[in-house]
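Notebook, p. 212. Picked up where the previous page left off. The plan for this session was modest: take the two constructs that came back from the sequencing core last week, fold each one, and keep the raw output in the notebook itself so nobody has to go hunting through shared drives later. Recording the first one now, exactly as returned: residue sequence, then the structure token string.
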Amino acid sequence: MDPFLWENGKMIDLGTFGGVFGFPNGMNNRGQVIGGSSVASNPGACNFENTNPGCDPFLWDGSKLIDLSVSSVGGSPQSAFWINDAGEIVGGGTFPNAPFDAYLWRKGIATDLGALPGDCFSEAYAINESSQVIGDSFDCTATFHHPFLWENGSMVDLNSLIPADSSLELVAVGPLSFSVSPLNDRGEIAGVGVPPGVSPGDMPVLGHAFLLIPCDENHPNIAGCDYSLVDTSTVAALTANEQSQAVPKTPPTSDAIRRLILSSGLRSSWRRSFGVQQPK
């Protein structure tokens, strides 16, 4: 089973790396496609499992299939979950000093994004047009997830960005779906958390959906937001290096990591964590 692209009324077979299985994971507005393909030495790999040995992540650039695992400089991607319109790809991969970390792939170079303090592994699941990356960081048993935001070279635990009295402990941001990104271009983030008294390990049966909304100029009149953190002085404080990274509208990380609030879907009701509307 080969991955395909339907374009202008015809089906394009993207091919494989010599195996019999392949699948797409995403496509950007330039027509570039990412996914996974089994290799000739392990033709049965890649049966919808993104990180099986022999299931290599690919980029289809419009003319050819590129094996990201063997062609990338800096590391070896093992999964590819999302691609933005700049052609930047995120997933998880192996690096000389890390057995499995989240990566950001740009123009053939895979950059190790690291893991949160105290954790041993990580994987990235989405990237938006401002090159913000979200994913999960894992403890050294690979059991517990800690959702993160990465931007401008810094990784931050999302649980540190929400009020201390929030109704949920954030547990994971993905992969919630292979077709819907848990991060949009407005910087809003979706995921799953657990209420007080519930173990993160019980997330599959007792988890609640959450939505993180940035307190910025794009989200006015959000209850509980401190908009004094977002003004012209923060934009002016961007360094020349940050401005050169094609994200001139994003405030510095030190401010960005303080400008998220939590909204959480509690069963069939909806409430803001600041008590704007209580669930019935």
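Okay, moving on. Second construct, recorded in the same format:
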Amino acid sequence: MSGKETILDEFYIDAVAEVLNIGMGSAAASLSEMISDEVKLSVPGVEFVTRVVAAEHIGKKAKTDVSGVHQNFQGAFGGDAMLLFPEEQSLQLVRAVLQQDDMTLEDLSEMEQEAMTEIGNVILNSCLCSMADMFGKEMRGEIPEFVQGSIDQVLNDEKGTENTEAIVLLLNMEFSVDKKNIQGYVTFLMDMAEVNQLKANIQEFLGE
């Protein structure tokens, strides 16, 4: 499969984007309650690409190592979900969540794993629950795990270094927290069978 090959057409991508925007609304409400401050989340871009293209896309934006949360999920369709941030922006988000603007980078690093895991748990489960509600089917997520490293290391760890053809549902996600604009990414790594399962669920929902 080439990086430019269409995996799902625009109609299905728009349907997925609409569902995930609903999930982001739910995640924003949960995070707002968590930090007692307004959180805005939006998904301006959704695309299906190969793992190689996803790594290139995120790498160009991040320019550094990334950190975030990984969660395997099964149900209406399966795969590996990840919430990823450029390292510097992940620390800004942790500062906002902990409401500790004066904390040093060393102190933040010690608390980053726990805080990011909680943030990731809220966001990823909101996405999964919104899709489960849409499809009227169960979605089960495993306990989320903190991940950190280069984007290639993080993506390869989940689908294997040899599986360059793994499909990635890539969400370009924008946070607005505590008057800071923080950009992150939600990725769903799937193989082609899992993508087809997702498409079948959308078709069933639409009565096709």
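Notes on construct two before I forget. The helical segments are 10-35, 51-62, 87-98, 105-135, 151-159, 192-205.
Flagging for discussion at group meeting.
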